[in-house]
Write a structure and sequence with these properties.
With 370 residues, the chain is mostly beta strands. It has a domain at 10-166: Alpha-Beta Horseshoe (Leucine-rich repeat, LRR (right-handed beta-alpha superhelix)). It is 5% helix and 28% strand. The protein has one helix at 11-28; strands at residues 31-32, 38-42, 49-54, 59-62, 66-67, 70-75, 86-90, 97-98, 111-114, 120-121, 134-137, 144-147, 150-153, 158-161, 168-171, 178-179, 190-194, 201-202, 215-217, 224-225, 238-240, 247-248, 261-263, 270-271, 284-287, 293-294, 311-314, 320-321, 336-340, 358-361. The strands form seven sheets. Strands 2, 3, 5, 6, 8 and 10 form a six-stranded mixed sheet that branches. A hairpin with a 2-residue loop joins strand 12 (144-147) and strand 13 (150-153). The radius of gyration is 28 Å and the shape is elongated. It starts with 10 loop residues before the first helix and ends in a 9-residue tail after the last strand.
Length: 370
């Protein structure tokens, strides 16, 4: 049969082929949703449009650059939350701001394309999207970048968001020094993370609710481990916290029900409220000599719910305990507090401390600094 460009090619077949080609092109091109699919507000200050909601058919969509003849510059908080039909979204080059929880729990969303103009993404813009696999960023974006579909800042020193649907182990690039708040929050099938030695800061709720996480090694240079960082990591079994960390912030390990082993840093001074609340697999823990306070503000309950905790070994003076209920209420055999015989603030031999029996042991030799 002659080619389509040959004048002998049947006209009817030529039209059919052109029509089929057009269908293929349309199928491969994201749909530009109609203006009527959006609710929006216009700023009185600069005339920019903020998208506040969506009621279109979904699929692969491109957000409009203009609505009502005005540039689209922002996506409001929760504008697309709980959406059930968008599979991918591409931002226009007019957009600069993405609001908090803008796409939260978008059930079918798999891919996000961030344009060069976006300079602010409020966290967590893309949390709990169960099918999200990739977040791509335009190469000339001045604030953000992407490596293999994972969101980073521009110079890739901070990891910002790991897609919810990823599974297995992940190796964080060596350029990273900061894990941003909620970067891995509620990624259920993440099983292990390799963190580079240069990371000094882990943000709040960074790994909260990572139910599949069983192992993680914290870097030696780490100095800040913020609150709820590993809350509800129900399959985490052990952790060693580097010596540069001086505070275990509130609720850091709350709900880690299978946590069996914890090694605290030598220079630790404070364990804040509910830090180990509900760690029911923990049976023993050693508290470094420098710890002066358990609990914080209105929160005590540091070890409440640790129902199998039978021994706490304090290596120094008795700490201040903020509020009652720092320790679990248990049936016998009861939790026993062990402390050096020469340390200050402890009761007389055989007496109770905070309602718990105590035992003395000879003072340990001082650790030598390396």
């Amino acid at each position: 049969m002659p080619s389509q460009n040959d004048p002998r090619f049947p006209t009817r077949l030529k039209k059919m082929c052109l029509s089929a080609t057009a269908c293929l092109v349309l199928a491969a091109t994201p749909a530009r949703a109609e203006p009527g699919h959006y609710s929006f507000a216009v700023s009185e200050d600069d005339g920019g449009v903020t998208i506040t909601g969506y009621r279109g058919p979904g699929g692969d969509i491109v957000l409009p650059a203009e609505l009502d003849g005005k540039p689209v510059t922002s996506i409001a908080r929760r504008a697309f939350m709980d959406n059930r039909n968008i599979t991918s979204v591409r931002f226009p080059d007019t957009l600069t701001f993405v609001g908090r929880e803008a796409f939260r729990a978008s059930q079918e969303l798999t891919t996000v394309f961030i344009s060069r103009s976006v300079t602010h993404i409020a966290r967590p813009a893309f949390s709990r999207c169960p099918r999200l696999m990739n977040i791509h960023v335009a190469e000339d974006n001045p604030e953000f970048s992407s490596i293999d579909g994972v969101l980073f800042n521009k110079d890739q020193t901070a990891i910002r968001r790991y897609p919810h649907a990823r599974a297995g182990d992940y190796i964080i690039p060596d350029t990273v020094t900061i894990i941003i708040d909620e970067a891995f929050r509620f990624v259920p099938n993440l099983t292990g993370v390799t963190i580079p030695d240069g990371v000094t800061f882990i943000g709040k709720q960074a790994f909260r609710g990572c139910e599949g996480l069983t192992r993680i090694t914290l870097p030696k240079e780490l100095t800040t481990l913020t609150h709820r960082a590993f809350k509800d990591c129900v399959n985490l079994t052990g952790i060693t916290i580097p010596d540069g960390v001086t505070t275990i912030q509130r609720r850091t390990f709350r709900g880690c029900v299978n946590l069996e082993s914890v090694t605290l840093p030598r220079h630790l001074t404070v364990i804040e409220g509910q830090a180990f609340y509900g760690c029911r697999s923990l049976t023993r823990i050693t508290i470094p000599a420098g710890v002066t306070r358990l609990g914080c503000g209105r929160e005590g309950e540091v070890f409440m719910g640790c129902d199998n905790l039978s021994n706490i070994v304090f290596l120094g003076d008795a700490p201040t305990v903020v509020r009652e209920g720092a320790f679990p209420v248990q049936a016998p055999p009861r939790l026993t507090v062990h402390h050096p015989e020469s340390a200050k603030g402890w009761p007389e031999a055989g007496a109770e401390w905070m309602g718990l029996p105590t035992e003395r042991f000879p003072a340990p030799e001082a650790d030598s600094e390396e």
